[in-house]
Specification:
Chain lengths: 254, 64
């Protein structure tokens, strides 16, 4: 009764077998949409968009670098929110989602750092500087690794998930630092390209902006597809003793 | 076409960046499938072992 203030569908979806089926049905559509968006966005970014008047064709790294950087922050926020739910209400599904967010977030953070390095070399003449933006993004990467490591250090995985969720919540202070680092400090890293509140006044031509936004949509869709798949696997392993998993495992021929 | 791959002289930075993007995400996409297969296999083994143990137990309990 204590959770009766939740809408009915949330209660329904919070049950592992229901979530497992729902995620399994939704996932193929999400990944298909992600691939279509990526194809359109990359065609727009690599073929249709003109070279930048200062950076030449090197700027085309933006179409993966910036969406990945946004994802590295967005996924961290998702991990912290589900981690909070896991800590406060001890919802098993929230624990699983929070912990499965971490490897995806780490992947996007790694992509951001690597593509940024490959972009920095021709533009700044160096692979790496200890500027505020780069350093705080590196800290973000280590926070993800810390969450993964702490989770795996516990014998009891539910306790591990809660401990790692706490670390994720503490690490949230890093998010505004990453975001505002180019405003608060003078760094080699260029300022924000896209102004979300005034999209038309962004410091980027429309022919370059739309592929960037489509790629952003593609990475979000990819994340949702990936987290659903990972959460299904996580539930399977956590609920191994339950009847629904047992009948699922023995029924499927694969 | 050659001009497209040359990327205005930045090919050695642009294409590796895209390669990193796709390789890392491919790892993210396919690694859970491997984990899933491992979990399923372990679980099937556990269920099979429990079944044999149960049949043995019932046989032992049965009056001779």
């Amino acid at each position: 009764m204590s959770r009766s203030y939740l809408p009915h569908w949330m209660h329904w979806l919070g049950s592992p077998p229901n979530f497992y089926r729902f995620a399994g049905a939704l996932r193929p559509w999400l990944i298909a949409a992600a691939l279509v968006c990526a194809a359109i966005g990359l065609y727009g970014g690599l073929v249709l968009a003109p070279p930048d008047f200062r950076q030449g064709d090197a700027y085309r790294i933006i179409f993966i670098h910036v969406p990945s950087a946004w994802m590295s922050l967005f996924i961290y926020a998702c991990m912290a929110v589900t981690g909070l739910v896991a800590l406060v209400w001890r919802v098993k599904l929230a624990e699983v989602i929070a912990m499965e967010c971490a490897p995806i977030g780490a992947a996007f953070t790694l992509i951001t750092l690597a593509t940024g390095s490959l972009w920095g070399r021709p533009m700044w003449g160096t692979w790496w500087t200890w500027g505020a933006r780069l350093t705080s993004e590196l800290v973000l990467f280590f926070l993800y690794l810390g969450v993964i490591g702490l989770y795996n250090a516990f014998e009891d995985r539910r306790r591990g998930a809660r401990a790692a969720s706490l670390l994720a919540l503490v690490g949230i202070v890093n998010l505004p630092i990453v975001h505002y680092s180019v405003v608060w400090w003078n760094t080699l890293h260029q300022g924000s390209t896209v102004d979300w509140l005034h999209l038309s006044q962004s410091s980027i031509a429309p022919s370059m902006l739309w592929p960037l936004l489509v790629m952003t949509l593609a990475t979000h869709l990819y994340f949702f597809a990936s987290i659903l798949g990972r959460a299904r696997t996580g539930l399977l392993s956590l609920e191994g003793g339950k009847q629904w998993v047992r009948s699922l495992v023995t029924e499927t021929s694969r | 076409m050659m001009q497209f791959f040359a990327m205005g002289g930045f090919a050695m930075y642009v294409w590796p960046a895209y390669a990193v993007f796709f390789i890392v995400l491919a790892w993210d996409w396919f690694s859970p499938a491997l984990r899933r297969r491992r979990i399923t296999r372990a679980l099937r083994g556990r269920i099979a072992r429990e079944r044999t143990r149960n049949t043995r137990a019932t046989r032992a309990e049965a009056p001779t």
